[in-house]
Amino acid sequence: MTSSSPHLLEMKAITKKFGAITALDHVDLTLSPGEVLGVVGDNGAGKSTLMKVLSGLYHPTEGEILLAGQPITMHSPKDARDVGIEMVYQDLALAGNLPVHENIYLGREPGRERLGFTIVDQKKSRDMAKAHLERLHISLKSVDQKVEQLSGGQAQAVAIARATAFDARIVIMDEPTAALAIKEVGKVLDLIKRLKDHGTSVILISHRMDDVFFVCDRVMALFHGRNFDEATIGNTNRNEVIGWIMGTKGHTEDLAHDRI
Fold first, then answer.
1. What is the pLDDT of residues 21-79, one digit of tens each?
2. Ranges of each domain in the chain
3. Which intervals hold domain ABC transporter (predicted)?
């Protein structure tokens, strides 16, 4: 049966308990095709836990996840990757001593099977990496550079390239600009916009309001493990969203002033 829902992703009443502690309490989240959704909240609000549920690292205690209208169950990050959900972690999870092209395809290297082993095709890996980086307008000196030789922004771009190398439908980014210089922040945000142009949906976890309002279509706030409020970017402002993070509603006069 085909769903009539316009959403690519629906997380319904997601609850996650760790013993007596309830980290998520009936949280809802929706994501449309090609949408960039900002997820905000103070430390301990449940943002990372919710994303770990979506990326297959945690299994929800209650609730359901629908992808393109169909219920899915994930027990590992591999299950999430298999349905097109990728996560770029704050620590990037890259191998610094390996070149760029090997990082992009690490664990999913192009090659051929022989006697039960995969023979990696290094030339194909390089060619595929060059083409993929070019498609995302990521400029690097060489795909043979080791990741440890890259700047923070370049390494972040490689992590995003790795997440999108296999036609991910949804990419989750956890504070992708937190440790970057201002110049590199702009490049990463431009890259997120290009992902949207390619039809990829993005969930951006961020404490940086400038980032959220520059790149996101919609923002939702969590507070103490629950939904607090959400709005399209054009129908809210920084002060209101900061209020949501603190557990208070914004003032309409602030919103009206911000639109002038």
1. 999 999 999 999 999 999 999 999 999 999 999 999 999 999 999 999 999 999 999 99
2. 9-95+168-259
3. 9-249
Distance CA 143, CA 162 (A): 13
Residue in this structure with the two tokens 């169950």, named with its chain if needed:
73
Q: Is 116 helix (H, G, I), strand (E, B) or coil?
A: coil
Tokens found for residue 94: 């890259």
In the predicted model, is pLDDT for residue 258 greater than 50?
Answer: no
Rounded CA-CA distance 72/82 in Å is: 11
Q: How far apart are CA 172 and CA 37, in angstroms?
A: 10
86 membership: H or E segment, kind and range? strand 85-88
The CA-CA-CA angle for residues 254, 228, 245, to 5°, reads 60
Amino acid type, 256: A
CB atoms within 10 A of CB 194: 16
Q: Determine the 3-state secondary structure of 108 from DSSP.
A: coil
**How far is it, in rounded angstroms, from Cα 46 to Cα 25?**
9
3-class SS of residue 251? coil
CB burial string 10-44: b at 16+ within 10 A, e below: bbbebbbeeeeebbbbebebbbeeebbbbbbbbee
pLDDT in tens, 106-134: 888 888 777 777 788 899 999 999 999 99
For residue 99, give the DSSP letter. Answer: B
pLDDT at 10 over 80: yes
The third-level CATH classification (topology) of the domain covering 9-95+168-259 is Rossmann fold (3.40.50)
Phi-psi region of 26 (alpha: psi -120 to 50; beta: other; left: phi over 0): left
